[in-house]
């Protein structure tokens, strides 16, 4: 079975770069690797200079490496269409019109994107992951990622309660049916209970996989906000029983040489000093080891530069 | 000319009496009892619907995306529930027993 690795972090810290570099290392170490982008900005295509879609595609110029990009918007839309189709098969047009409002609303809630993304993620772990040794996720920003990961626990309980309520009301309907009269509703073959059970099973699978077969790394930059955010993320992941394996500090300013003089050099020295303090703070206050420090690059990270970054990213890829 | 024996007359009377008694029993005891159970079933169902579709009343729910999947199977009940919840005083709201 594939091993899953997640790179989380605030938007803009360089998750895509780091996950692409890590995937590259895995592939170079001889593992069949799939890198999955869930970032709506879709920068994986930029990193490899190649468009990717909803299906895994080999990355040109790299052996054993494939990539795919999940579009949460498209997932939400597809889910909506599925329900509408089912709706038309089940009920009359008059009722469809009434209910459509509710269905549409459910797909416009702030949580719809995360829910759709999470569904797709589960599918990747179940289906696309087949045939790969390593699957690397470039996850969405911290807050959303955490919400996403807390869903299995939360939804599991909730589904249990719903099933209980539903079963109880169906049982009561059965008792209320007089004599030979048909009860209005019965528990056997209830499509609602069946659906809820399927949901629960899916979330349990996700929770199990995330706890037992996945590693989490957080990417941060050496600045105050990023360090504070990462500390919170580590705590919150811990609350959900998910341990963070390491921190990757990205965009570390390179130090100027001793003999360099001038405003630019002074600026850099001061900056480097500050970043050192932040990195020290991260090391002291966050109970997770810093596994890599990656120097800031002036240009886009792609091609040879990506290979350099991969070399700097000293994270164990396993055997 | 048909002869109705006293036995037959008694039998007919007993039949009619049984029917009246059953009607009384059904109306005074059986039906209200079953109705109460059905009320309880509906209350349970209301709670279920509320847990699933709280956002229909403006309460944001992190699960409404998933519960929307249930709507094709719940459509008619959902519609009735929504109406009931929005307008508790309406004659439509009430669980459908009318003993005029």
What is the averaged pLDDT score of chain A? 84
Provide the residue-averaged pLDDT of chain B: 77
Query: Which strand-content bin applies to the residues of chain B?
Result: under 5%
Number of strands of chain B: 0
Q: Supply the number of helical segments of chain A.
A: 10
CATH class of the domain at 4-80 and 125-146 and 215-312 in chain A: Alpha Beta
- The percent range for helix content of chain B is 55-70%
The biggest chain-chain interface is: A-B, 45 and 38 residues
Secondary structure class of chain B reads: mainly alpha
Give the helix tally of chain B. Answer: 3
Query: Could you give the count of β-strands of chain A?
Result: 8
Helix-strand makeup class of chain A = alpha/beta
Identify the overall geometry of chain B: rod-shaped
Low-confidence stretches of chain A: none
Task: Give the oligomeric state.
Answer: heterodimer
Q: What's the shape of chain A?
A: elongated
What is this entry, summarized?
Chain A is α/β, with parallel strands linked by helices. Chain A has helices spanning about 15-30, 45-50, 70-90, 95-105, 110-130, 140-175, 190-210, 225-240, 265-285, 305-310; strands at about 5-10, 35, 55-60, 65-70, 135-140, 215-220, 245-250, 290-295. Chain B has 3 helices and no strands.
């Amino acid at each position: 079975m594939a091993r899953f690795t997640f790179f989380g972090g605030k938007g803009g810290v360089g998750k895509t770069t780091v996950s692409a570099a890590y995937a590259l290392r895995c592939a170079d170490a001889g593992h069949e690797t799939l890198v999955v982008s869930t970032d709506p900005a879709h920068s994986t295509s930029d990193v490899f200079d190649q468009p990717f879609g909803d299906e895994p595609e080999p990355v040109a110029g790299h052996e054993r490496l494939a990539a795919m990009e999940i579009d949460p918007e498209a997932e939400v839309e597809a889910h909506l269409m599925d329900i509408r189709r089912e709706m038309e098969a089940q009920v009359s047009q008059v009722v469809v019109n009434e209910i459509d409002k509710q269905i549409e609303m459910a797909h416009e809630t702030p949580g719809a994107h995360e829910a759709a993304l999470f569904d797709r993620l589960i599918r990747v772990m179940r289906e696309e992951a087949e045939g790969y040794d390593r699957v690397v996720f470039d996850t969405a920003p911290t807050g959303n990622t955490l919400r996403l990961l807390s869903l299995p626990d939360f939804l599991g309980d909730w589904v249990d309660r719903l099933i209980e309520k539903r079963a109880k009301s169906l049982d009561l309907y059965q008792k209320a049916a007089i004599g030979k009269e048909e009860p209005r509703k019965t528990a056997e073959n209830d499509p609602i209970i069946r659906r809820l059970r399927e949901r629960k099973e899916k979330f349990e699978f996700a929770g199990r996989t995330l706890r037992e077969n996945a590693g989490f790394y957080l990417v941060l930059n050496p600045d105050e906000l990023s360090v504070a955010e990462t500390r919170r993320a580590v705590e919150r992941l811990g609350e959900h029983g998910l341990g963070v394996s390491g921190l990757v500090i990205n965009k570390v300013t390179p130090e100027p040489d001793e003999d360099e003089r001038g405003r630019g050099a002074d600026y850099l020295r001061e900056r480097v000093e500050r970043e050192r303090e932040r990195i020290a703070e991260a090391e002291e206050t966050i109970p997770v080891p810093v596994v890599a420090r990656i120097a800031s690059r002036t240009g886009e990270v792609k091609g040879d530069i990506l290979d350099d970054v991969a070399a700097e990213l000293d994270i164990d890829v396993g055997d | 000319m048909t002869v109705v024996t006293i036995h037959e007359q008694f039998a007919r009377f007993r039949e009619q009496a049984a029917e009246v008694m059953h009607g009384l029993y059904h109306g005074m005891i059986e039906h209200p009892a079953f109705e109460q159970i059905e009320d309880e079933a509906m209350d349970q169902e209301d709670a279920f619907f509320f847990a699933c579709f709280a956002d229909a009343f403006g309460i944001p729910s992190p699960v409404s995306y998933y519960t929307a999947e249930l709507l094709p199977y719940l459509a008619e009940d959902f519609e009735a529930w929504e109406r009931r919840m929005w307008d508790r005083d309406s004659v439509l709201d009430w669980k459908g027993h009318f003993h005029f």
